[in-house]
UniProtKB/TrEMBL annotation:
InterPro entries, per the entry: HAD-like_hydrolase_sf, HAD-like_sf, HAD_sf, PhnX-like
Protein name: Phosphonatase-like hydrolase
Database matches in SUPFAM superfamilies: HAD-like
Source organism: Streptomyces poriferorum
Pfam families: Hydrolase
Length: 235
């Protein structure tokens, strides 16, 4: 881990949404199955199982990138992505989403300490906005980012973290940024951006070994533990 000066404050916090601050409850897989069925992938087939395994392995990546890999041809990928976003949006509208316990409180604590918090996602903007509206989080943080807000490349690229760094001006050194997420792609994104703390959380897709292998500097039970970790790092 990069060392920080004792007077350095970790004032930019970039948090993932589904699986990290938002309890997804398997909605990604359900929405994928609905989208795949619309494109003729039979539920229960070997093709469906193989594609679902890939979706699980790439949790955290930009969804359109996942569909480009699975379906190849751009028109099919765009159709699949649109169907996925529609299915996910319907699940969100149906009340199938909730905050991770303690997530809102952690965000409010970090903000009250003078830190800037950004929420990032691999979903499209319309889906991200639907999740924020369902939770009543539209005004909770200073910045929300989806891949299209950072040039179109989602995780594992560092683009969304660096976009938060550039847009907020919250810190003058990228090492004073904290990134937290539940997937290997979140960890890779944080490491590649040069964040001082890259924290994995165990409330989502990937386990401690996967998070650590992808560069997590810390692994927490949940994002609720993040304010304490930051306080200790600054002490």
């Amino acid at each position: 881990m990069k060392t920080l000066n004792h007077d350095s404050k970790l004032n930019l916090i970039v948090l993932d949404m589904a699986g990290t601050t938002v309890a997804d409850g398997g909605l990604v897989e359900q929405a994928f199955s609905a989208a795949a069925a619309r494109l003729g992938v039979e539920p229960g087939s070997a093709d469906h199982a193989g594609k679902l395994d890939y979706v699980r392995a790439t949790m955290g990546e930009s969804k359109i990138t996942v569909f480009r890999h699975l379906f190849g041809e751009e028109t099919l990928a765009q159709r699949a992505n649109a169907a996925f976003e529609e299915a996910y949006g319907e699940l969100v509208d149906g009340g199938r989403i909730a905050p991770v316990p303690g997530a809102r409180e952690a965000i409010e604590q970090l903000t009250s300490e003078g830190r800037t918090v950004a929420l990032s996602t691999g979903f499209a903007r319309a889906t991200q906005d639907a999740i924020l509206a369902a939770l009543g989080w539209q005004d909770l943080v200073a910045l929300t980012l989806c891949p299209a807000d950072a040039g179109g490349r989602g995780r594992p690229y560092p683009d969304m973290v660096l976009a938060a760094f550039l847009r907020t001006g919250a810190v003058d050194d990228v090492r004073r940024t904290v990134v937290a997420g539940d997937t290997s792609y979140d960890m890779l994104s944080g490491v590649r951006a040069g964040a001082g703390i890259v924290a994995g959380v165990l409330t989502g897709a990937h386990d401690k070994d996967q998070l650590t292998r992808s560069g997590a500097t810390h692994v927490l039970g949940s994002v609720a533990e993040l304010p304490g970790l930051i306080a200790r790092a600054e002490a």
